[in-house]
């Protein structure tokens, strides 16, 4: 693994099981401050979900971690180094892979060629072949379509391919941006079951951005809620699922007692 010591001071000490530590990050689009001093931690072997409404800054935070965007301030501590501002390929070589929102598979390349692109940092052909079969074992439909152009796959299959392509880089940490976007409920369930299995069986630590809070928290160990570029809640996934604020905002419901003393649910509009 290449060393990715970046700008800023030496990495401060952190707990042994913290694999990724984001500290006081600020990111901008020109004059627009999209990330306003975000700090969070991802522990080894965990699935961490990042929730928040449209425009909260989730994708921007992921892009900042993966090196697609440079933060203006703050540190991203990974593997004992501050990788804030590192180039995306250095971040991948260090073991963090970003599966972007919208999948972004190479439409004219075949499934197999897309997977090979994911292994661009590797030269161990036998290992690449083995990992390709590993990906096919998790996503058998991709094995059936290995010679098909990725652009002809369904949305769900493209999502599987994007995850599979990410796995080909042998990541220690995977950043998954909205894996459920545009998929049917059944497919969402299937994808999340596979995400869980990859986490458990392949030991990949996962950080995932999701609009679908229920699914995301059910699969996660820990969760953060973002609003307007800041973290506004952080807790175990179990406690977040039970949190009234999360239920009201994300499930769009508000509990109230009916006249007969039974709990009913009604629509509520805003977070606050
Ligand atoms: N390319 C861009 N140029 C300028 N502003 C942007 C750009 N991309 C995002 N923003 C702004 O940055 C803020 C954070 O956007 P971001 O996409 O990170 O939010 P998000 O939580 O991922 O939302 P979504 O779920 O809609 O993807 C928003 O105010 C958004 O309008």
TrEMBL record:
<dbReference type="GO" id="GO:0016887">
    <property type="term" value="F:ATP hydrolysis activity"/>
</dbReference>
<dbReference type="GO" id="GO:0015658">
    <property type="term" value="F:branched-chain amino acid transmembrane transporter activity"/>
</dbReference>
<dbReference type="GO" id="GO:0015807">
    <property type="term" value="P:L-amino acid transport"/>
</dbReference>
<comment type="similarity">
    <text>Belongs to the ABC transporter superfamily.</text>
</comment>
<feature type="domain" description="ABC transporter">
    <location>
        <begin position="20"/>
        <end position="253"/>
    </location>
</feature>
<dbReference type="InterPro" id="IPR027417">
    <property type="entry name" value="P-loop_NTPase"/>
</dbReference>
<dbReference type="InterPro" id="IPR003593">
    <property type="entry name" value="AAA+_ATPase"/>
</dbReference>
<dbReference type="InterPro" id="IPR052156">
    <property type="entry name" value="BCAA_Transport_ATP-bd_LivF"/>
</dbReference>
<dbReference type="GO" id="GO:0005524">
    <property type="term" value="F:ATP binding"/>
</dbReference>
<dbReference type="InterPro" id="IPR030660">
    <property type="entry name" value="ABC_branched_ATPase_LivF/BraG"/>
</dbReference>
<keyword id="KW-0029">Amino-acid transport</keyword>
<dbReference type="InterPro" id="IPR003439">
    <property type="entry name" value="ABC_transporter-like_ATP-bd"/>
</dbReference>
<keyword id="KW-0067">ATP-binding</keyword>
<dbReference type="InterPro" id="IPR017871">
    <property type="entry name" value="ABC_transporter-like_CS"/>
</dbReference>
<dbReference type="Pfam" id="PF00005">
    <property type="entry name" value="ABC_tran"/>
</dbReference>
<keyword id="KW-0813">Transport</keyword>
<keyword id="KW-0547">Nucleotide-binding</keyword>
<protein>
    <submittedName>
        <fullName>Branched-chain amino acid transport system ATP-binding protein</fullName>
    </submittedName>
</protein>
């Amino acid at each position: 693994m290449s060393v990715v010591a970046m700008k800023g001071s030496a990495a401060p000490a952190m707990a042994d099981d913290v694999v990724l530590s984001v500290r006081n990050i600020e990111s901008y689009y020109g004059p627009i401050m999209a990330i306003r001093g975000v700090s969070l931690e991802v522990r080894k072997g965990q699935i961490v979900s990042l929730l928040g409404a449209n425009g909260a800054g989730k994708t921007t935070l992921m892009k900042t971690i993966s090196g697609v965007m440079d933060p203006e301030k703050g540190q991203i501590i990974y593997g004992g180094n501050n990788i804030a501002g590192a180039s995306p390929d250095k971040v991948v070589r260090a073991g963090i892979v970003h599966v972007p929102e919208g999948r972004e598979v190479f439409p004219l390349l075949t499934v197999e060629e897309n997977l090979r692109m994911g292994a661009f940092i590797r030269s161990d052909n036998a290992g690449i072949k083995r990992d390709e079969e590993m990906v096919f074992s998790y996503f058998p439909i991709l094995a059936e379509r290995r010679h098909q152009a990725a652009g002809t796959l369904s949305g769900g299959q493209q999502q599987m391919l994007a995850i599979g392509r990410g796995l080909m880089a042998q990541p220690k940490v995977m950043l998954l941006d909205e894996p459920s976007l545009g998929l049917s409920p059944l497919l969402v369930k299937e994808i999340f079951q596979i995400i869980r299995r990859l986490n458990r069986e392949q030991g990949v630590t996962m950080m995932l951005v999701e609009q679908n809070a229920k699914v995301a928290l059910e699969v996660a160990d820990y969760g953060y809620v973002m609003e307007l570029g800041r973290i506004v809640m952080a807790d175990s996934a179990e406690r977040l699922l039970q949190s009234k604020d999360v239920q009201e905002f994300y499930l769009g419901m508000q509990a109230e007692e009916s006249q007969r003393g039974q709990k009913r649910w009604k629509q509520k509009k805003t977070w606050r």
